[in-house]
Amino acid sequence: MAMNELTHDTAQQRDDAAQSPSAHASAHVVEGGKERAADIMSGADAPSCPIRPNGSSHHPDQTGLPRSGQFEQTDRVDRRQATRQLFTLALPTFGQLIAEPAFVLIDTAIVGHINDAALAGLSIGSTIILTTVGLCVFLAYGTTSSVAQLIGAGKRREGLEAGIDGLWLALAIGMLVSTALFAAARPLCWAMGARDAVLDNATAYLQAIVFGLPGMLLVYAANGIFRGLSKVNITFVAAVAGAVVNTALDVLFVFGLHWGVAGSGAATLIAQWFMGLFLVVPALLWARADGASWRPRLAGILGTASDGMPLFIRTLALRASLVATVMLAARMGTQVLAAYQAVNSSWNFVLNMLDAIGIAGQTLVATQIGAGRRDRAHAMTSIAGRSGLLAGAVIGMGLAAAGLAATGLFSPSPEVQHLIMVGMLVQGVFLPLAGWMWALDGILIGAEDYRYLALTCTITALAYLAALGGVNALDGAIDLGDVWRMAVLWGVLNLVFIGLRALFNGLRVRSNVWMK
């Protein structure tokens, strides 16, 4: 599939959480005269915020963060503790974030052993479905920041009801859009540049997977609730279970029943609905335990949609850029497109490790902003950015190593394997920049700085589309060859698409304007 923008795609957590009456749910406990929920599935409360005012002593409040004080400095021990807390939240968050990328990576590895045309068709079909899912990422991001900020302000029930509004909106959008995509599958794949056998495979995959879209959007919205509540362990369990289901069915449908690329799409559809139900049921139970209503509230649903419009514009600009990248890869030939899909699915997978850091920071920072603690929000932003940079460096080395040693997992073709290696090496070099940018991106989303993100992502998209036009013209003039095509394609993506966003995000967090 195409690059997940999520991605950021992407929110959270500390354990302030509610457990429902069932074995997977909640038991209320009393602490300090206030009723709160103890998360059975998480096992333990998250640590109180390790960033302390200089020279002060304090006790955590009900959010697990210090009550008061100014951040005059953060000592070495506190930074280490803050980083530990960030990764404590990020690791299980990564588990739920990788659901869709893991499905695509599994699909890519299996379909790549059918033939090059099937892998190229998967690239086209998955780009369309991921673009659609990506355009609805506001269901996760918007719900996360709304729930986290309302809880930070002491309005737990209202926060949960905002999350339920997101579930209703996800279901409605999913049903309408999946029906339209099924009807328009072949024309859309043709417009993306698919022809002949690639077009047949792309259409088959898209029509097989498309009705899993409502289930995946429910996953997004439910994740927003759990992130906002800092309850991420259940999302990790759902992601692992979904990946297991998808892998088993993929092997059965593709190699056992010989359904080809359509079998891969059908396996993913089933896994998406499995995950959707796995998460929605406990989300509703936990919400009911805190007195939140399940009823659809038209005002709340419309409010969620309205609040998500700037995020939609942001994501539309980004997805347009990624669609254009796939279209250019399709013009470069079947082998380049097939290799692009393998690199893209791998990159998309590791990006979610980085996105998990931004999402963990998003919940911590959003809670601080909701409680009016701007100094602490700045401190956590700095720590999250550095953590993203360092994680990008480490993961980038792993991605480069995979490019040197593991390309045979994606294709038996030596030519395609060589192109995959080139793409992964380029991505490994630039991954630290992506890690820093993604961390700041998640935090700005948590601060609901949507209009700035929409504006800067639109500017980035326009610059990137112009750069792709230049690459296409250069290739037509001098015939770069497949190896240089692959290197230039990924190099331009990182320098322009990632680089400009990193610049804009870095300039923004230097001020206080983004904190409302």
TrEMBL record:
Top-level lineage group: Bacteria
Keyword set includes Ribonucleoprotein: no
Region (Disordered): 1-77
Primary localisation category: membrane
Keyword Ligase attributed: no
Topology term for the membrane: Multi-pass membrane protein
Biased composition (Basic and acidic residues): 1-17
Keywords in alphabetical order: Membrane, Transmembrane, Transmembrane helix
Location within or outside the cell: Membrane
Signal peptide positions on this chain: none
Annotated Low complexity bias: 18-28
Any one GO cellular component localisation term in the record: plasma membrane
Membrane-spanning segments: 86-106, 118-141, 162-184, 204-222, 234-259, 265-287, 388-410, 416-440, 452-471, 483-504
GO molecular function: antiporter activity; xenobiotic transmembrane transporter activity
Family, similarity comment: Belongs to the multi antimicrobial extrusion (MATE) (TC 2.A.66.1) family.
Protein name from the UniProt record: MATE efflux family protein
Species: Bifidobacterium subtile
